[in-house]
Fold:
Amino acid sequence: MASRRRPPFDPKSAFKHAQKQDDRSGTGVPETILKQGRKSGQLNLSGRSLTEVPQSVWKINIDVPKESSNISLGTTDERWWEQVDLSKLILASNALTSLSEDIAQLPALTVLDVHDNQLNSLPEALCQLENLQKLNLSHNSLKALPESICQLPRLQFLYIQNNQLEALPEDIGRLALLEELDASHNKLPTLPTSIKFLERVMKFNMSNNNLNVIVHEISGMQGLRTLDATHNQLHTLPDDLGHLNKLEQLYLRHNRLTHLPSLQHCTALKELHLGNNAIQGLSEEQLREMHSVSVLDLRDNRLTKVPSEIVLLQMLERLDLTNNNISALPYELGTLPNLKSIVLDGNPLKSIRRDIIMRGTNELKKYLRSRMAESAPTAPQSAVQSSKGTSGIVGGASSGVDPHLVSSSKALDYSEKKVTAIPDELWAVAQSGGVTIVNFSKNQLTQYPKQIESLKDSLCELNLSFNKLTTIDASIGCLSRLVMLDLGGNQLLSLPAELSNASSLRELVISFNRFTSIPSVVYSLPCLEIILAGSNQIAEIDAQGLKSLAQLATLDLQNNDIRQVPPELGLVTQLRSLQLEGNAIRQPRPAILSKGTLAILEYLRGRIPT
Structure:
C-alpha cells in the first residue's frame, strides 16, 4: 500500500491557523496578549492596523476567561485573583479615528499612548482616568482638546504635537503637576493666560505654530528650564520672559524679532538661539544680562557690528554669526577665556584676512589679541579684568591664590601658570573652600592630577584644557557631581570607562586631541547635552550611540576625518546644533550643511532605506 504524501509546509497558512486558534475572543487581539496584559499591567497594541479598540481591551480586567475564574483549577497559568489592573496602554501607529467612552473602565491607567493615528476627537470620559500621568496624543488630526482633559489631577507629561489644534483649553492651568508640555506643529495663534499656573513645567515646546505674541503670564511658569518657540511669527517678546530665573535653554529661531528680549533675571541661561530673525544690533545692557550664556546663536540676522562689550560674556563657548552684515570684529573677542567656536561664514569681513579665519577659532582669537596689544586699548582691557574680578575666580596672572576669595567664590583658577604640577598647598585651600569650579587650563601638565579626588564631594566643573595630557586617570570616575568637563587641547586617544560614573555630566569638551572616534564611554552618560569633539581624527559617526543620549542638543564634529555621515544620524532628533564643517564629506552637500541642523537631519532621514 502506497504511503500518503504529506503536503508541503506552508508557513503563511500555519501562522494564520495559529492566530485563529489563539484569537478566541474574535476581536483581532489574540487572547495570549490579553492574558499577558492582565499579568503585567501593560498592553502594547501598536502597529496592528486597528480602526477601533476592541471591547475586550476596555474590559480586560472585567471579562476574565472562565478557566481563569475557576478556583478549583490549580494548574491554570492565569488566575483571576493574580491579575494586575491595566496601567499602561499603547495604541500607537494604528488607524483609530476615535476612542470609546468605555475608556473609563480602565481607571488604573497611568500611561496612555495613542500617537500616530487619525484621531479627530476625544471622549469626555477621559477625565475619569484620575491616575493618568502620561498622555501622548501626538501625530493625529485633533482640531481641539476637550476641557475635560484639564481634569486629570496627576498628569505630568502631555504630548499634543503634530495635530491641527487652533487653541489650547482655557483651563490648562489646572494641570498643576504637569512637567512637560509639547504643543509644537499645530496652528495655535495664542496661548491661554492660565499657563501662569503651570509652575512645574520644565520643558515647553510651542514651536511651529502661528504665534505672533507670547502672553506675559508665561512669567508664572517658574519651573521652566527649556522653552522652544522657533518657527512662529513673533515680532516682540514680553519683558516678563526675563523673570524665568531657572531658564537654561531658549530657542527663538525663525521668527521676526528685531531686538533681543530682556533677560534680566534669567541668571541660569546657558543657551540662547536667535538665528533667522531680523535683529540689527546688541547693546551693552543686553549683553550684561546674558553673562551666564555659553551658546549664542545669531546667525541669519541683520547685525552690522559686534560691540566690544561682548567681553562681558565670560562664559561664552560658541558664537554663531553666520550670514550677517559684519565687516569687522572687536579685538576684545579674542580675550574670552572659554570661547571655543566662532562661526563667521557669510559675512563681508574686510579687516581680517580669509586665511586667518580659515585656521580656526584659536588662531583667530590669537590674531585678535595680537592686534589689541598693538593698539594697546586700556579701557576694554580694564573691562576684562573687572569682569574676571566680579566672577569670583582668582589667580589669573598672579603667582598666588587668595584662600578667602577661593572660599567665597567656590572657584579655583590656576590657569596659564606654565607649571608641570599643581602645588600641594593649593589642594588644602581648594578642599577647605569647598570649590565647585577648578580651572587648570593652559599649563604644561603631563599627568592627570589625582589629588582632584579630594574634591569629589563638591566639584561640578573641571577645566584641564590645553595641557600635555596623554591619558586620564580612572579616578576621574569618583567625580559624581561633575557637570562640565573640558579636556580640549591635549594629546588624548581614549577616555577611561570609569567616566561613566559621572552620571550628572552635561557638557564634555574633547576638541583638539587625537581621538579617532567618540569614546564609547560617552554613550553611557545619560545627562549629556553638549559634545564638542572638533579638530580630532574622528573617521566614523556612531549614530546608534548618539541616539541613546536622550538629552543631547549640541554636537560639534568640525575638522575631523569624517567621509560618510550615516543616514541614521537623522533619527537623533533631539539635536539642536550639529557642526560638520571641515570634513571631507560628499553627502550632505555643502548647500545642505549651510541650511542648519534641522535641514541636515531631515535630509539624512530621507536617505534611510525603507
